[in-house]
Write a structure and sequence with these properties.
- It contains 19 helices and 28 strands.
- A 6-stranded mixed beta sheet has the order 4-3-2-1-5-6, with helices on both faces. It has a 6-stranded mixed beta sheet with strand order 12-11-10-8-13-14. It has a 4-stranded antiparallel beta sheet with strand order 21-28-27-24.
- It starts with a helix and ends in a 5-residue tail after the last helix.
- The model has no long low-confidence stretch (mean pLDDT about 95).
- α14 packs across α15 and α16 packs antiparallel against α17.
- By secondary structure, it is of the alpha+beta class.
Length: about 600
């Protein structure tokens, strides 16, 4: 069915149910960034496959909002659909709620599936609509009604992680949350974010592609907890294990009835930026919802010693696989026909040949030449480009290991010699990566204070990249994890600009993208560590976890400062010392040349 036909059916349903505007976000019932196939309503309705984007449909027009990572991709995929692309963050482009406030007429209605929109955002929309004498209609999943062969909700087997990987037991984590409840004088905490539930209960699953989580909701009370999930996903052994820690398993959809039956006067703590609107709306008016920042988010972000040790091991395994792959690619680019999808599969094979590998942490980005300028490009059968022995291949990939999660980007020169333009931009991106990783900063700084270190070499050239510089990464969990981040834009939500703390793992990934030519991104994961304490206070810095070489042939040494060269040489020395013992003779000799000091 064509996009235009789907939209026509949707608009007929809107008329049937008295809905003037219908909002379709990229979301699931839990505020997840990546969603299972069942929840990909926006993708189905629009044909746009990026991981971020929201639709607004009226009786006469349709708009799709997405961020800078996806401008080129959305422009291509929306062509001919009749959907207008709104480039978020660009001058003069309104946000969706601003657009609604400008266009909705007195008495008109706005609809959405109340399970797919977070409570805070829904209440903002409600205020706008009701301010014009209109109403919200949140009981209908219209996109689902249009989708005849919609996939089923996942309920794959859940499993428990051993204490050697988690570092802290389930009981100890739940005790910490109960102490938080006591401090907040709350009767219960409702957690809907899947990664927080998985971390807190030391369980993992496969209910979202590339995200090892289990679909569920968790209600924590001082003496007992209720996990609302698909019981079929839990073995009797795992149920018994949970029960020993007073975690009672109930069916997934029963959470709404449970919260609707909360006793009068109960104080229900809930993160309104994550919990969906229907969950919040079923809590009786006789109870009180306390809007909080979910405390588990920060507990999870600051890795404990066992998690840090595991992440170091995972990055060595991952670095070996990536280094072997780069060597293989350099040796074979002129010997055999290769495409974007073929090389992504080859790297996956290298990862799979190592121990404790569980699968990719996100779908690979293997983007050759002009495709590299599409920030989150994903090769399809139709777009799968043939690689030539020239130009850049941007390769952004990651893996899940029992010990942790990785995310790494290397831009690889496929020819013998880079052009002056390629070297100029590659070196600027490299210098930004190195300078951020070498930062020493006063405790209390957030990523907002550090972002300029990665962007300065590009800003000096009058260019920039239209995405954040760094995101948090989970430990055998989501590859994008809050609240730590490195960006220059200050976010509005309460936990949007948290300070860096020792134990946080964040990506360091500056880039530059020249439409029609190439893209360059260089990404390492960096661990926040203590540096020193003195009369001026406490200073922090970073330890680079990722162990893989940069492309020596794409570097212009004359563009680097002496400090930049010193940083690169020190990093490459560590890469060689760490990775070479796991390589064969030819691979190790090649790596020695790649990691040789640059004068």
């Amino acid at each position: 069915m064509k996009v235009t036909e789907k939209l026509a059916l949707l608009k007929n349903l809107m008329q049937q149910y008295g809905i003037d505007y219908y909002y379709i976000p990229t979301n699931d019932f839990h505020g997840s960034e990546y969603v299972a196939d069942y929840f990909k309503c926006r993708e189905y309705m629009s044909g746009f496959t990026g991981s971020a984007g929201n639709m607004l449909v009226s009786r006469t027009e349709t708009g799709l909002w997405t961020d800078g990572r996806y401008f080129l991709q959305a422009q291509q995929q929306l062509a001919g659909s009749g959907i207008t692309l709104f480039r978020m963050g660009e001058p003069g482009v309104p946000k969706i709620f601003e657009y609604i406030a400008q266009h909705i007429q007195p008495g008109q209605s706005l609809g959405f599936d109340g399970r797919m929109v977070d409570a805070f955002y829904a209440l903002q929309l409600k205020k706008i609509v009701e301010g014009k004498g209109g109403r919200l209609i949140t009981d209908f999943d219209l996109a689902g009604m249009v989708w005849p062969d919609r996939p089923a909700i996942e309920a794959k087997p859940a499993y428990s992680l051993a204490p050697q990987f988690t570092g802290v037991t389930r009981g100890e984590k739940l005790d910490a949350v109960c102490k938080w409840l006591e401090k907040k004088r709350a009767d219960m905490l409702v957690i809907t974010s899947l990664d927080d539930i998985a971390w807190l209960l030391n369980i993992r699953g496969e209910d979202i592609h590339c995200s090892p989580v289990v679909l569920g909701y968790l209600v924590i009370k001082p003496l007992e907890c209720f996990l609302f999930a698909h019981k079929s996903a839990f073995s009797s052994r795992l149920r018994q294990e949970l029960a020993r820690d007073s975690v009672i398993l109930r069916e997934y959809d029963d959470v709404y009835d449970y919260l609707a039956g909360v006793k009068e006067g109960s104080r229900v703590a809930m993160d309104m930026y994550v919990a969906n609107y229907r969950l919040a709306s079923v809590v009786p008016e006789s109870a009180k919802i306390i809007g909080v920042i979910n405390p588990v988010k920060m507990m999870k972000a600051v890795k404990n010693p066992a998690e840090i040790s595991g992440e170091r091991i995972a990055h060595i395994k991952d670095g070996v696989a990536l280094t072997r792959f780069i060597y293989w690619l350099k040796q074979n680019i002129q010997k055999m026909p290769l495409t974007e999808r073929m090389v992504a599969a080859q790297l996956e094979a290298f990862r799979g040949s190592g121990g404790d590998y569980l699968g990719p942490s996100f779908d690979p980005i293997a983007a050759y030449g002009p495709h590299g300028a599409i920030v989150h490009y994903s090769a399809t059968e139709e777009t799968d480009a043939r690689l030539l022995a020239e130009g850049f291949l941007l390769l952004d990939t990651g893996g899940h290991y029992l010990q942790g999660t990785t995310d790494v980007t290397r831009t690889i020169l496929l020819g013998q010699k880079a052009t002056e333009e390629e070297k100029k931009y590659y070196t600027a991106v490299l210098c930004g990566n190195l300078r951020l990783a070498a930062a020493k900063f006063k405790k209390g700084c957030s990523g907002v204070a550090l972002d300029i270190l990665a962007r300065q070499p590009l800003w000096d050239m009058g260019c920039d990249f239209n995405h954040g510089t760094g995101h948090g990464v989970g430990c055998l969990l989501n590859v994008h994890e809050g609240p730590n981040a490195i960006r220059y834009r200050i976010l509005a939500q309460p936990d949007g600009n948290v300070e860096m703390q020792p134990g946080m793992i964040t990506s360091d990934e500056p880039g530059v993208y020249l439409e029609g030519k190439f893209g360059i991104r260089l990404e390492n994961l960096i661990l926040c560590v203590e540096k020193e304490k003195n009369a001026f206070g406490e200073f922090l810095g970073f330890e680079t976890l990722t162990m893989a070489p940069f492309d020596r042939d794409a570097i212009a040494p004359e563009q680097m400062t002496e400090q930049d060269k010193k940083l690169l040489n020190a990093y490459h020395e560590k890469v060689y010392e760490t990775i070479s013992p796991y390589l064969d003779r030819n691979e190790a000799e090649w790596l020695m040349d790649v990691c040789a000091p640059i004068d």
